[in-house]
Design brief:
The chain is mostly helical. It has one domain. The protein starts with a helix and ends in an 18-residue tail after the last helix.
């Protein structure tokens, strides 16, 4: 009979009138608030982990692109490549060595 009375109290809303429940209500709300804050922090941390992984992948792609560009630049700057391109536009390599110009301050 006691169980039926308790179930009837819960379903009828009579449990909220119990002084012990009312006294414990602020603590229960406090625990609920802390749980919500913990959940929010967990979601925020997960978002940051995903963002870090995306940025890490982007950084790897940019590093590969940088290395590729650097290799192309080094290849284009080689003397043989410069001579090839100069010959295509009609320039020739000088046969005489360059002369040094010396300026003296008087």
């Amino acid at each position: 009979m006691k169980k039926e009375n308790n179930i009837g109290k819960i379903l009828g809303g009579g449990i909220f009138g119990d002084p012990r429940i009312i006294k414990a209500l602020p603590f229960a709300l406090f625990l609920t608030g802390i749980a919500m804050i913990a959940i929010r922090c967990s979601h925020s941390a997960d978002k940051k982990v995903v963002e870090i992984n995306e940025l890490r992948n982007e950084m790897k792609e940019l590093e590969a692109e940088h290395r590729e560009s650097q290799n192309k630049l080094m290849e284009l700057g080689m003397e043989s490549k410069v001579l090839e391109k100069a010959q295509k536009i009609g320039l020739e390599e000088s046969k005489t060595p360059p002369k040094k110009i010396v300026i003296t301050n008087e």
